[in-house]
Amino acid sequence: MQVAVLVVILTVSEEELRVLLIHRSGEPYLGWWALPGGGLLPAETLAAASARKLVEETGVSDVYLEQLFTFDGLDAEPGSVAVAYFALVDARRVRLRAEAAWEPAWFAVAALPELAFDNARVIDYAITRLRNKLVYTNVAYSLLPQAFPLSDLQAVYESIFGRAFDKRNFRRRMLSQGIIRPTGRTAARGAHRPAELYEFSSRQPMVL
Amino acid sequence: MQVAVLVVILTVSEEELRVLLIHRSGEPYLGWWALPGGGLLPAETLAAASARKLVEETGVSDVYLEQLFTFDGLDAEPGSVAVAYFALVDARRVRLRAEAAWEPAWFAVAALPELAFDNARVIDYAITRLRNKLVYTNVAYSLLPQAFPLSDLQAVYESIFGRAFDKRNFRRRMLSQGIIRPTGRTAARGAHRPAELYEFSSRQPMVL
DNA sequence: CCAAAAGTGTTCGGCTTACACCCATGT
DNA sequence: ACATGGGTGTAAGCCGAACACTTTTGG
User: Fold this and answer.
1) How many CA atoms lie within 13 A of B200 on its CB side?
2) Which residue's CA shows the smallest distance to C1' of D17?
3) What's this model's pTM, rounded to 2 decimal places?
4) Which residues in chain A touch residue B3, judged by CB atoms under 8 angstroms apart?
5) Which positions on strand C lie below 7 Å from a protein C-beta?
6) Straight-line distance from CA A98 to C1' D10, in Å?
7) Which residues contact A33 (CB under 8 A, 6 or more apart)?
8) Is the torsion defined by CA of A77, B71, B102, B17 positive or negative?
9) CA dist B171 to A71, A193, B152, Å?
10) B35 and B121 in contact (C-beta within 8 Å)?
């Protein structure tokens, strides 16, 4: 198998940027934590293979998925390359198949276990790309449900960048860039003033 | 041969952004203009293969070379992928091997011939990437000689973006971003005031 | 009435843009 | 002396960053 795909599936939950890892079922690195991936089916495109892997692991399909980089020498087998993709999913929509032999699990990227190959480098690469894209695109739509309070969106950004933003500036930026718009609805979530709900102006990837 | 590299070699000469094309020597598209590329040698990395192709075509090796994107379905042969790279070279340092069977030649990207596969898409992709990188990196160093008048640098930027920039603002930006610095030398080039010569502060790729 | 998160405007500094004239040289 | 490209400063608008108080609700 000369060409394989590798999928960095990212989400934000409990205020942490997390990546989906599985246990490897083959040599080398049998039983180690690793990124999901694998070979292509006959006549399958790279994009289709990465989307298939994503569905296999998470059950979701209509999310942001982008080619990241092509690595070689990952498994010390000359001539083989891994085309890495990264996906952004809303953890609430994902049902990990707990019964699967490879025991998929979410790990905070700030506290990764030891990984097979140099998958850690691939994940770093994905995080850097994601941080850049958040600045000039609307890809965050893929991390949130259809409607959400603004504070949830801000928490997503803060978790990914690892720092706090000013509430007023953040709101102004999201609205003036046209990333989101108010729905008119509100939702209460505790002993305090209910929040207005927002939605993304577009749920297709857009450069701002 | 499942994995191949493809190299988009770009330069600016005579106020035009140009790409190096060769004649294909094999089927399909025998004899058509196409991007240089080919398979990997045993145990060769992708980066090494693209650098080798670059040397074969241009004789230069110490230039900016970056992985661009991995395409599949380019040649309708399922399971094969082409990992595209792009390189930035100073045309004055290049000696095309005119005797070679594939007759390499520079084409203005604004006036490309019909190309094999969808190499035109690969070139578009490279141009877009280059325009973006020029904004926040110093990669232009790879398109110019060691020392140069500021107007040459500006002409390079203008050719790539396809529009004119204000002289004063351009100078201020290049200097305040620390991309270039004066050498103290000057050079005359015609019936007018000689220009000060500048050099890049660093000839390694740097994010500003 | 208290705790908790939601919502709201203004000021300042820096960066980008637009814009016009004098300088040094070769012929 | 004139033609040619080289070199220079300033003002206006826009954008991002910093910053504190009031509102609404549940308990």
Assistant:
1) 18
2) A169
3) 0.93
4) 2-3, 79, 81
5) 3-10, 16-20, 23-27
6) 67
7) A21, A22, A23, A24, A107, A112, A113, A114, A115, A116
8) negative
9) 39, 53, 12
10) no
pLDDT tens string B64-79: 999 999 999 777 676 7
Per-residue burial over B113-146, b if 16 or more Cβ lie within 10 Å, else e, is: eebbbebeebbebbbebbeebbeeebbbbbbbee
Q: What pLDDT score does A25 carry? A: 84
Contact A78 B42 (CB under 8 A): yes
Share of chain B above pLDDT 90, in %: 81
Determine the 3-state secondary structure of B48 from DSSP. Answer: helix
Q: Which two tokens stand for residue A51?
A: 């989307």
pLDDT in tens, A36-93: 998 999 889 999 999 999 999 999 999 999 999 999 977 767 678 999 999 999 999 9
Nearest by Cα to B98 from B149, B29, B150, B22: B22
Q: Taking the C1' atom of D4, which residue's CA lies nearest?
A: B192
Distance CA B12, CA B91 (A): 7
Helix (H) or strand (E) holding A194: none
Q: In terms of Cα–Cα distance, which of A71, A76, A72 is closest to A86?
A: A71
End-to-end CA distance of chain B: 39
Distance CA A58, CA A68 (A): 19
Neighbours of A187 (CB within 10 A): 12
Burial class (CB in 10 A: 0-12, 13-18, 19+), A51: buried
Strands B3-13 and B81-88: parallel
Which chain A residue has the Cα nearest residue B80?
A3
Mean pLDDT of the region A162-179? 96
